């Protein structure tokens, strides 16, 4: 979906829309995470932490943040240690957009 600049400016001028746009904005790191998750059949915080060479807590917070913006779906299950673990998936509606962006 492509909006012309006039339509984009109208959205930015509207306070409610501007706040919604800010809330939905993604950083380059968020987009890289989305691409990583989309390339797999489910991703956990541990998977992302290994991929980014970072702490599991940081990876968990990052996935939770992107999930909160509505770009990821997640499913809860018990981990081997007995705790709760989430497996994240890119929402189907965004997979094609990510693939299209990769080809440009």
- The name of the CATH superfamily reads Winged helix-like DNA-binding domain superfamily/Winged helix DNA-binding domain
**Topology pattern, helix = H, strand = E:** HHHHHEEH
User: Got a strand count?
Assistant: 2
Structural category: alpha+beta
Helix content: 55-70%
Can you characterise this structure?
The structure is a single chain. A hairpin with a 5-residue loop joins strand 1 (72-78) and strand 2. The protein has 104 residues and is of the alpha+beta class. The chain has helices at residues 5-13, 15-24, 28-38, 45-52, 56-68, 92-103; strands at 72-78, 84-90. Strands 1-2 form a two-stranded antiparallel ribbon. The mean pLDDT is 90.
Structure keywords:
two-stranded antiparallel sheet; alpha+beta; Arc Repressor Mutant, subunit A; 61% helix; 6 helices; 104 residues
């Amino acid at each position: 979906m492509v909006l012309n600049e006039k339509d984009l400016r109208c959205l930015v001028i509207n306070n409610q829309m501007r706040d919604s746009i800010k809330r939905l904005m993604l950083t380059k790191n968020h987009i890289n995470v989305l691409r990583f998750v989309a390339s797999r059949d489910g991703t956990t915080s541990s998977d992302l932490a290994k991929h980014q060479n970072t702490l599991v807590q940081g990876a968990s917070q990052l996935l939770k943040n992107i999930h909160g913006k509505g770009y990821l779906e997640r499913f809860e299950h018990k981990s081997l240690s007995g705790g709760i673990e989430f497996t994240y998936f890119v929402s189907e509606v965004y997979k094609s957009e990510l693939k299209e962006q990769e080809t440009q």
